[in-house]
Amino acid sequence: MWNFDAHVHSADSDGTDTILELIQKAAAAGLSGFALTDHDYLAELSNAKLQAEAHGLLLVQGVEISTTFEGRSAHLLAYRPDPANRELRETLREIRSARATRLQRIVENVHSDFPQITWQRLLESIEEGGETVAPGRPHLADLLIAEGIVASRAEAFAGILNHAGPYFVPQWAPDPRDMVEMAVRAGAAPVLAHPLSQDRQKPLPERVIEEMAEAGLFGLERDHREHTAADREAVTRLANRLNLVTTGGSDYHGSGKPNLLGENTTDQETMELILAESEN
Ligand code: AMP
Ligand code: FE
Ligand code: FE
Ligand code: ZN
After folding, report:
1. CA proximity to 193, closest of 217, 157, 167, 159
2. pLDDT by residue (tens digit) across 220-230?
3. Which among 241, 242, 222, 244 is positioned nearest to 233, based on CA atoms?
4. Are residues 153 and 146 in contact, defined by beta-carbon separation less than 8 angstroms?
5. pTM for the full predicted model
6. Residue 137 C-alpha to ligand 1 middle, in angstroms?
7. Which of 77, 112, 132, 187 is 20 to 30 A (C-alpha) from 180?
8. Is residue 157 lining ligand 1, measured as CB closer than 6 Å?
9. Can you tell me the mean pLDDT for 137-146?
10. Which residue spans within the chain are E strands per DSSP?
């Protein structure tokens, strides 16, 4: 049976498993394969692909690119970009650098009420926990847990780290339409992640998704735990109207989130279209 999870994070971004651990867990869970979609980062995967193959798994390289439109954050999954594409590499590096600057500002805000939370402590805790290249609030959440201020990442996001809370600082990221164009230039198949999720800031206006489709968007992620049944129907209708494929993925983050590997999947025909559309 085909079951391919098209949205998975490793500890390179804000997941908690290494890529090798993901491969072992995916094999144990009986998956056909998965796409590694770390935030704003493309890992060197040639070794991991061999390991995946040895487990009978298809490992697809992807990246979940941060974008913003009028203060709203949107995530763009780009499948199989040319990993050597300089423009994309440079832009991902800029986004990662903005992540660190912005997280430092959130830490300073939190520090005013919780003096034990400092940037130095955060850097140390990230090193202890496995050196992410894409630091974000989940890493600060882990420090809040270590300091006994909250019990879980979920509690941190519901309170201290919430985007509507007093400590929040928005992140700079490029425009979603520009990133669709850049992903296409890099040979990738771009898919808008969790377009109707209400767990985050407001979703993108439909007009912007239409413009992304004109710019070369290939699909919309439909099956995601942050989409209700009604959301999924709405995504299907929008995808049909804009001639886009629909995908599914777990958005697994290891022990950092309740999402289970393989809880949502992308069908074989759709995955073959994505692989045919992308060149690398
Ligand atoms: P940031 O990148 O700093 O804006 O933080 C957003 C990241 O936090 C997302 O990529 C998610 O992986 C993670 N996240 C968001 N909400 C939660 C939650 N309730 N529990 C755990 N992780 C979360
Ligand atoms: Fe994440
Ligand atoms: Fe996302
Ligand atoms: Zn994700």
Report:
1. 217
2. 999 999 999 99
3. 222
4. no
5. 0.97
6. 6
7. 132
8. yes
9. 97
10. 4-8, 33-36, 58-69, 72-79, 189-192, 219-223, 245-248
